[in-house]
Amino acid sequence: MDTPNKQTLILSARDVRSILSMKDAVGAVELAFAEHARGAAMMPPKVYLSLDAYAGDFRAMPSYIGASADAAHPAAAGVKWVNSHPENPARFGLPCVMGVYVLSDPATALPLAILDATVLTAARTGAAAAVASRWLAKPAPKSIGFVGAGVQARWMLDAHRVIYGDALEIVAADVRPEATQAFVSEHCGGRGRIGSIEEAAGCDLVCTSTPGRTPVVQRAWIKPGAHLNAMGADGPGKQELDPAILDAAVVVIDEHHQATHSGEINVPIAEGRYREEQLFGTLGEVVTGKRKVERRADTITLFDSTGLALQDVALARVLYAAAKARGVGTAIELVG
Ligand SMILES: NC(=O)c1ccc[n+]([C@@H]2O[C@H](COP(=O)([O-])OP(=O)(O)OC[C@H]3O[C@@H](n4cnc5c(N)ncnc54)[C@H](O)[C@@H]3O)[C@@H](O)[C@H]2O)c1
Protein backbone atom coordinates (compact mmCIF):
# COMPACT_ATOMS: atom_id res chain seq x y z
CA MET A 1 0.00 0.00 0.00
CA ASP A 2 1.20 3.55 -0.82
CA THR A 3 2.00 5.85 2.07
CA PRO A 4 -1.31 7.60 2.65
CA ASN A 5 -1.52 11.33 2.16
CA LYS A 6 -2.32 12.71 5.59
CA GLN A 7 -2.11 16.37 4.74
CA THR A 8 -4.71 18.96 5.63
CA LEU A 9 -4.84 22.18 3.66
CA ILE A 10 -5.24 25.37 5.71
CA LEU A 11 -6.98 28.15 3.79
CA SER A 12 -7.20 31.63 5.32
CA ALA A 13 -9.85 34.19 4.38
CA ARG A 14 -7.29 35.77 2.05
CA ASP A 15 -6.63 32.40 0.40
CA VAL A 16 -10.36 31.79 -0.03
CA ARG A 17 -10.85 35.21 -1.60
CA SER A 18 -7.96 34.61 -4.00
CA ILE A 19 -9.47 31.40 -5.41
CA LEU A 20 -13.17 32.16 -5.17
CA SER A 21 -15.06 32.45 -8.45
CA MET A 22 -18.67 33.61 -8.09
CA LYS A 23 -19.56 31.68 -11.23
CA ASP A 24 -18.32 28.48 -9.59
CA ALA A 25 -20.08 29.42 -6.35
CA VAL A 26 -23.41 29.85 -8.15
CA GLY A 27 -22.90 26.49 -9.89
CA ALA A 28 -21.97 24.74 -6.64
CA VAL A 29 -24.95 26.13 -4.75
CA GLU A 30 -27.38 25.29 -7.55
CA LEU A 31 -26.08 21.73 -7.46
CA ALA A 32 -26.51 21.63 -3.67
CA PHE A 33 -30.19 22.56 -3.94
CA ALA A 34 -30.67 19.94 -6.66
CA GLU A 35 -28.96 17.20 -4.63
CA HIS A 36 -31.14 18.12 -1.66
CA ALA A 37 -34.30 17.60 -3.73
CA ARG A 38 -32.97 14.33 -5.16
CA GLY A 39 -32.29 13.02 -1.65
CA ALA A 40 -28.62 12.56 -2.56
CA ALA A 41 -27.39 14.58 0.39
CA MET A 42 -27.50 14.48 4.17
CA MET A 43 -28.04 17.45 6.42
CA PRO A 44 -29.00 16.97 10.07
CA PRO A 45 -30.56 20.05 11.69
CA LYS A 46 -28.22 22.82 12.85
CA VAL A 47 -27.10 22.48 16.46
CA TYR A 48 -27.26 25.69 18.51
CA LEU A 49 -25.03 26.27 21.53
CA SER A 50 -26.33 29.41 23.25
CA LEU A 51 -23.93 31.01 25.71
CA ASP A 52 -25.87 33.77 27.45
CA ALA A 53 -22.96 34.46 29.82
CA TYR A 54 -20.89 35.53 26.80
CA ALA A 55 -23.75 37.24 24.92
CA GLY A 56 -23.22 34.91 22.01
CA ASP A 57 -23.92 31.57 20.44
CA PHE A 58 -22.33 28.90 18.27
CA ARG A 59 -23.93 26.83 15.54
CA ALA A 60 -22.64 23.54 14.14
CA MET A 61 -23.78 22.76 10.60
CA PRO A 62 -22.78 19.30 9.33
CA SER A 63 -23.63 17.89 5.90
CA TYR A 64 -22.71 15.35 3.25
CA ILE A 65 -23.01 15.69 -0.52
CA GLY A 66 -22.52 12.82 -2.98
CA ALA A 67 -20.27 12.89 -6.03
CA SER A 68 -21.64 15.05 -8.83
CA ALA A 69 -23.24 13.20 -11.76
CA ASP A 70 -20.57 14.52 -14.17
CA ALA A 71 -17.87 13.21 -11.77
CA ALA A 72 -16.35 16.71 -11.64
CA HIS A 73 -16.71 16.73 -7.86
CA PRO A 74 -16.09 13.83 -5.46
CA ALA A 75 -18.36 13.20 -2.51
CA ALA A 76 -17.60 15.41 0.48
CA ALA A 77 -18.56 15.79 4.12
CA GLY A 78 -17.98 18.71 6.41
CA VAL A 79 -19.08 20.91 9.24
CA LYS A 80 -19.26 24.65 9.72
CA TRP A 81 -18.61 26.00 13.21
CA VAL A 82 -19.90 29.54 13.23
CA ASN A 83 -20.90 32.03 15.90
CA SER A 84 -22.87 35.19 16.49
CA HIS A 85 -21.41 37.53 19.14
CA PRO A 86 -23.07 40.92 18.50
CA GLU A 87 -20.97 42.71 21.15
CA ASN A 88 -17.66 41.60 19.61
CA PRO A 89 -16.94 44.72 17.51
CA ALA A 90 -17.48 47.16 20.39
CA ARG A 91 -15.95 45.07 23.20
CA PHE A 92 -13.11 43.20 21.53
CA GLY A 93 -12.58 44.73 18.09
CA LEU A 94 -13.52 41.39 16.54
CA PRO A 95 -16.21 40.64 13.94
CA CYS A 96 -19.65 39.59 15.16
CA VAL A 97 -19.55 36.45 13.03
CA MET A 98 -16.49 34.25 12.45
CA GLY A 99 -16.72 30.85 10.84
CA VAL A 100 -14.43 27.87 10.36
CA TYR A 101 -15.12 25.02 7.95
CA VAL A 102 -13.72 21.48 8.24
CA LEU A 103 -13.95 19.58 4.94
CA SER A 104 -13.42 15.82 5.19
CA ASP A 105 -13.06 12.90 2.82
CA PRO A 106 -16.17 10.83 3.56
CA ALA A 107 -14.37 7.56 2.64
CA THR A 108 -11.44 7.91 5.06
CA ALA A 109 -12.57 10.78 7.31
CA LEU A 110 -9.26 12.56 6.62
CA PRO A 111 -9.72 16.31 7.18
CA LEU A 112 -8.87 17.55 3.68
CA ALA A 113 -9.06 21.22 4.51
CA ILE A 114 -9.74 23.72 7.26
CA LEU A 115 -10.85 27.00 5.84
CA ASP A 116 -12.22 30.36 6.77
CA ALA A 117 -15.98 30.14 6.54
CA THR A 118 -16.79 33.83 6.73
CA VAL A 119 -16.17 34.48 3.05
CA LEU A 120 -17.58 31.01 2.29
CA THR A 121 -20.87 31.88 4.05
CA ALA A 122 -21.27 35.24 2.36
CA ALA A 123 -20.48 33.79 -1.07
CA ARG A 124 -22.85 30.83 -0.75
CA THR A 125 -25.60 33.15 0.52
CA GLY A 126 -25.19 35.51 -2.41
CA ALA A 127 -25.10 32.53 -4.75
CA ALA A 128 -28.37 31.14 -3.33
CA ALA A 129 -30.16 34.42 -4.07
CA ALA A 130 -28.88 34.41 -7.64
CA VAL A 131 -29.90 30.78 -8.17
CA ALA A 132 -33.39 31.64 -6.92
CA SER A 133 -33.59 34.65 -9.25
CA ARG A 134 -32.45 32.51 -12.17
CA TRP A 135 -35.22 29.95 -11.62
CA LEU A 136 -38.05 32.10 -10.29
CA ALA A 137 -37.78 35.64 -11.68
CA LYS A 138 -39.28 36.83 -14.93
CA PRO A 139 -36.94 36.74 -17.94
CA ALA A 140 -34.71 39.77 -18.47
CA PRO A 141 -35.39 41.82 -15.33
CA LYS A 142 -34.20 45.41 -15.65
CA SER A 143 -33.61 46.47 -12.05
CA ILE A 144 -32.44 45.06 -8.74
CA GLY A 145 -33.12 46.63 -5.34
CA PHE A 146 -31.28 45.97 -2.08
CA VAL A 147 -33.02 46.59 1.23
CA GLY A 148 -30.08 46.49 3.61
CA ALA A 149 -26.77 47.36 1.98
CA GLY A 150 -24.43 45.39 4.22
CA VAL A 151 -22.17 42.40 3.70
CA GLN A 152 -24.69 39.97 2.18
CA ALA A 153 -25.99 42.59 -0.25
CA ARG A 154 -22.54 42.92 -1.83
CA TRP A 155 -22.25 39.20 -2.40
CA MET A 156 -25.79 38.97 -3.73
CA LEU A 157 -24.96 41.67 -6.25
CA ASP A 158 -21.81 39.85 -7.37
CA ALA A 159 -23.73 36.60 -7.74
CA HIS A 160 -26.49 38.27 -9.76
CA ARG A 161 -23.82 39.61 -12.12
CA VAL A 162 -22.99 35.98 -12.94
CA ILE A 163 -26.57 35.52 -14.20
CA TYR A 164 -27.40 38.96 -15.61
CA GLY A 165 -24.06 40.60 -16.37
CA ASP A 166 -23.81 44.33 -15.69
CA ALA A 167 -27.12 45.23 -17.29
CA LEU A 168 -29.23 45.66 -14.15
CA GLU A 169 -30.03 49.08 -12.69
CA ILE A 170 -29.24 48.97 -8.98
CA VAL A 171 -31.13 50.73 -6.16
CA ALA A 172 -29.74 50.47 -2.63
CA ALA A 173 -31.58 51.37 0.60
CA ASP A 174 -30.37 51.19 4.18
CA VAL A 175 -31.07 52.93 7.47
CA ARG A 176 -27.39 53.89 7.59
CA PRO A 177 -26.54 56.45 4.88
CA GLU A 178 -22.85 55.46 5.03
CA ALA A 179 -23.80 51.87 4.11
CA THR A 180 -25.66 52.86 0.94
CA GLN A 181 -22.96 55.38 0.06
CA ALA A 182 -20.23 52.74 0.29
CA PHE A 183 -22.34 50.13 -1.51
CA VAL A 184 -23.11 52.39 -4.47
CA SER A 185 -19.66 53.95 -4.82
CA GLU A 186 -17.62 50.78 -4.29
CA HIS A 187 -19.74 48.00 -5.78
CA CYS A 188 -22.17 49.25 -8.40
CA GLY A 189 -19.79 50.30 -11.17
CA GLY A 190 -21.80 53.40 -12.14
CA ARG A 191 -25.12 51.48 -12.41
CA GLY A 192 -26.29 52.12 -8.86
CA ARG A 193 -28.12 54.81 -6.95
CA ILE A 194 -29.24 55.37 -3.39
CA GLY A 195 -33.01 55.15 -2.94
CA SER A 196 -35.71 54.82 -0.32
CA ILE A 197 -36.74 51.37 0.87
CA GLU A 198 -39.92 51.84 -1.16
CA GLU A 199 -37.89 52.47 -4.32
CA ALA A 200 -35.60 49.49 -3.74
CA ALA A 201 -38.64 47.30 -3.05
CA GLY A 202 -40.19 48.50 -6.30
CA CYS A 203 -37.52 46.89 -8.51
CA ASP A 204 -37.95 43.77 -10.67
CA LEU A 205 -35.60 41.84 -8.36
CA VAL A 206 -35.64 42.68 -4.63
CA CYS A 207 -33.01 41.36 -2.22
CA THR A 208 -33.62 41.96 1.48
CA SER A 209 -30.85 41.37 4.01
CA THR A 210 -31.67 43.26 7.21
CA PRO A 211 -31.39 41.68 10.67
CA GLY A 212 -34.65 43.03 12.11
CA ARG A 213 -37.73 41.65 13.83
CA THR A 214 -40.34 43.99 12.38
CA PRO A 215 -41.30 44.13 8.70
CA VAL A 216 -39.52 46.84 6.71
CA VAL A 217 -41.00 46.13 3.25
CA GLN A 218 -44.69 46.83 2.61
CA ARG A 219 -46.93 44.88 0.23
CA ALA A 220 -47.96 48.04 -1.67
CA TRP A 221 -44.35 48.66 -2.74
CA ILE A 222 -43.95 45.35 -4.60
CA LYS A 223 -44.49 45.54 -8.36
CA PRO A 224 -46.55 42.91 -10.22
CA GLY A 225 -44.10 40.39 -11.71
CA ALA A 226 -41.37 41.04 -9.13
CA HIS A 227 -39.14 38.41 -7.56
CA LEU A 228 -37.95 38.76 -3.95
CA ASN A 229 -35.03 37.10 -2.23
CA ALA A 230 -35.76 37.31 1.50
CA MET A 231 -32.37 36.52 3.04
CA GLY A 232 -32.28 38.40 6.34
CA ALA A 233 -34.62 36.30 8.47
CA ASP A 234 -32.55 33.31 9.57
CA GLY A 235 -33.52 32.94 13.20
CA PRO A 236 -36.72 32.58 15.24
CA GLY A 237 -38.51 35.92 15.58
CA LYS A 238 -36.72 37.53 12.61
CA GLN A 239 -38.88 39.05 9.88
CA GLU A 240 -38.41 41.59 7.07
CA LEU A 241 -41.60 41.54 5.01
CA ASP A 242 -45.21 42.56 5.43
CA PRO A 243 -46.94 39.13 5.65
CA ALA A 244 -49.39 40.29 2.95
CA ILE A 245 -46.46 39.84 0.52
CA LEU A 246 -46.38 36.14 1.41
CA ASP A 247 -50.11 35.84 0.63
CA ALA A 248 -49.59 37.50 -2.75
CA ALA A 249 -46.49 35.52 -3.76
CA VAL A 250 -45.49 32.05 -4.90
CA VAL A 251 -43.30 31.24 -1.86
CA VAL A 252 -40.33 28.92 -2.34
CA ILE A 253 -38.23 27.91 0.67
CA ASP A 254 -34.76 26.39 0.98
CA GLU A 255 -35.65 23.66 3.49
CA HIS A 256 -38.85 22.97 5.37
CA HIS A 257 -37.62 22.56 8.95
CA GLN A 258 -35.29 25.57 8.87
CA ALA A 259 -37.70 27.84 7.02
CA THR A 260 -40.64 27.20 9.36
CA HIS A 261 -38.38 27.51 12.42
CA SER A 262 -36.34 30.55 11.43
CA GLY A 263 -37.09 31.84 7.92
CA GLU A 264 -39.22 34.76 6.77
CA ILE A 265 -42.33 32.63 7.26
CA ASN A 266 -41.53 31.73 10.91
CA VAL A 267 -43.29 34.65 12.60
CA PRO A 268 -46.41 34.68 10.37
CA ILE A 269 -46.75 30.90 10.90
CA ALA A 270 -46.31 31.22 14.68
CA GLU A 271 -48.94 33.98 14.73
CA GLY A 272 -51.36 31.92 12.60
CA ARG A 273 -51.12 34.59 9.91
CA TYR A 274 -49.67 32.20 7.28
CA ARG A 275 -50.24 28.48 6.72
CA GLU A 276 -47.59 25.97 5.66
CA GLU A 277 -50.05 24.69 3.02
CA GLN A 278 -49.60 28.00 1.21
CA LEU A 279 -45.93 27.19 0.46
CA PHE A 280 -45.16 26.25 -3.14
CA GLY A 281 -42.13 24.02 -2.49
CA THR A 282 -38.36 24.07 -2.18
CA LEU A 283 -35.83 25.69 -4.48
CA GLY A 284 -34.33 22.22 -5.06
CA GLU A 285 -37.69 20.98 -6.34
CA VAL A 286 -37.79 23.88 -8.79
CA VAL A 287 -34.15 23.43 -9.91
CA THR A 288 -34.69 19.70 -10.56
CA GLY A 289 -37.95 20.32 -12.44
CA LYS A 290 -40.05 18.45 -9.85
CA ARG A 291 -42.12 21.60 -9.45
CA LYS A 292 -42.52 24.31 -12.04
CA VAL A 293 -43.75 27.82 -11.34
CA GLU A 294 -46.29 28.79 -14.02
CA ARG A 295 -45.37 32.45 -14.19
CA ARG A 296 -47.78 35.06 -15.57
CA ALA A 297 -46.69 38.66 -16.19
CA ASP A 298 -48.02 39.73 -12.78
CA THR A 299 -46.87 36.72 -10.74
CA ILE A 300 -44.83 37.64 -7.67
CA THR A 301 -42.28 35.05 -6.57
CA LEU A 302 -40.39 34.92 -3.29
CA PHE A 303 -37.44 32.86 -2.10
CA ASP A 304 -37.25 32.48 1.68
CA SER A 305 -33.63 31.61 2.53
CA THR A 306 -32.28 30.49 5.88
CA GLY A 307 -28.91 29.16 4.65
CA LEU A 308 -28.25 25.44 4.32
CA ALA A 309 -25.23 23.44 5.48
CA LEU A 310 -25.37 21.83 2.04
CA GLN A 311 -24.58 25.14 0.38
CA ASP A 312 -21.44 25.28 2.54
CA VAL A 313 -20.15 21.79 1.79
CA ALA A 314 -20.86 22.19 -1.93
CA LEU A 315 -18.84 25.39 -2.11
CA ALA A 316 -16.11 24.16 0.27
CA ARG A 317 -15.29 21.20 -2.00
CA VAL A 318 -15.08 23.50 -5.02
CA LEU A 319 -12.76 25.84 -3.12
CA TYR A 320 -10.60 22.92 -2.00
CA ALA A 321 -10.24 21.70 -5.60
CA ALA A 322 -9.36 25.21 -6.78
CA ALA A 323 -6.78 25.65 -4.02
CA LYS A 324 -5.14 22.33 -4.84
CA ALA A 325 -5.08 23.14 -8.56
CA ARG A 326 -3.51 26.55 -7.95
CA GLY A 327 -1.17 25.66 -5.11
CA VAL A 328 -2.91 27.99 -2.67
CA GLY A 329 -2.88 27.41 1.10
CA THR A 330 -0.61 25.75 3.61
CA ALA A 331 -0.56 21.95 3.84
CA ILE A 332 0.20 20.46 7.27
CA GLU A 333 0.10 17.04 8.90
CA LEU A 334 -2.60 17.93 11.38
CA VAL A 335 -3.89 14.55 12.52
CA GLY A 336 -1.66 11.97 14.14
N1 LIG B 1 -30.18 33.43 4.54
C1 LIG B 1 -28.91 33.22 4.74
O1 LIG B 1 -28.34 32.23 4.29
C2 LIG B 1 -28.11 34.22 5.52
C3 LIG B 1 -26.71 34.12 5.52
C4 LIG B 1 -25.97 35.11 6.18
C5 LIG B 1 -26.62 36.14 6.85
N2 LIG B 1 -28.00 36.17 6.86
C6 LIG B 1 -28.72 37.24 7.58
O2 LIG B 1 -28.75 38.37 6.73
C7 LIG B 1 -28.87 39.55 7.53
C8 LIG B 1 -27.83 40.57 7.09
O3 LIG B 1 -26.53 40.07 7.28
P1 LIG B 1 -25.27 40.95 6.86
O4 LIG B 1 -24.08 40.09 7.11
O5 LIG B 1 -25.47 41.53 5.52
O6 LIG B 1 -25.35 42.09 7.98
P2 LIG B 1 -24.81 43.58 7.86
O7 LIG B 1 -24.85 44.12 9.24
O8 LIG B 1 -23.53 43.61 7.10
O9 LIG B 1 -25.91 44.32 6.94
C9 LIG B 1 -27.23 44.53 7.36
C10 LIG B 1 -27.63 45.93 6.89
O10 LIG B 1 -29.02 46.12 7.14
C11 LIG B 1 -29.19 47.48 7.52
N3 LIG B 1 -30.47 47.63 8.20
C12 LIG B 1 -30.79 47.27 9.46
N4 LIG B 1 -32.09 47.54 9.69
C13 LIG B 1 -32.60 48.09 8.56
C14 LIG B 1 -33.87 48.58 8.19
N5 LIG B 1 -34.90 48.56 9.02
N6 LIG B 1 -34.02 49.06 6.94
C15 LIG B 1 -32.99 49.11 6.08
N7 LIG B 1 -31.74 48.67 6.38
C16 LIG B 1 -31.56 48.16 7.60
C17 LIG B 1 -27.99 47.78 8.40
O11 LIG B 1 -27.76 49.16 8.52
C18 LIG B 1 -26.89 47.04 7.64
O12 LIG B 1 -26.24 47.87 6.71
C19 LIG B 1 -28.72 39.08 8.99
O13 LIG B 1 -30.01 38.96 9.57
C20 LIG B 1 -28.08 37.72 8.86
O14 LIG B 1 -28.36 36.89 9.95
C21 LIG B 1 -28.74 35.24 6.20
Q: Can you describe what's shown?
A:
With 336 residues, this protein is α/β, with parallel strands linked by helices. The protein folds into two domains: 8-120 and 310-332, ornithine cyclodeaminase, domain 1, CATH 3.30.1780; 125-308, Rossmann fold. The chain has helices at 13-19, 22-38, 88-92, 118-136, 151-164, 177-187, 197-201, 243-248, 256-262, 266-270, 283-287, 309-326, and strands spanning 8-11, 41-42, 47-51, 56-65, 76-84, 99-104, 111-116, 143-147, 169-173, 192-194, 205-208, 227-230, 249-253, 281-282, 300-304, 330-332. The longest helix has 19 residues, at 118-136. The model has no long low-confidence stretch (mean pLDDT 96). It binds nicotinamide-adenine-dinucleotide. Nicotinamide-adenine-dinucleotide binds at residues 121, 125, 147-152, 173-176, 179, 197, 209-212, 216, 231-232, 234, 305-307. Residues 121, 125, 147-152, 173-176, 179, 197, 209-212, 216, 231-232, 234, 305-307 line the site of nicotinamide-adenine-dinucleotide.
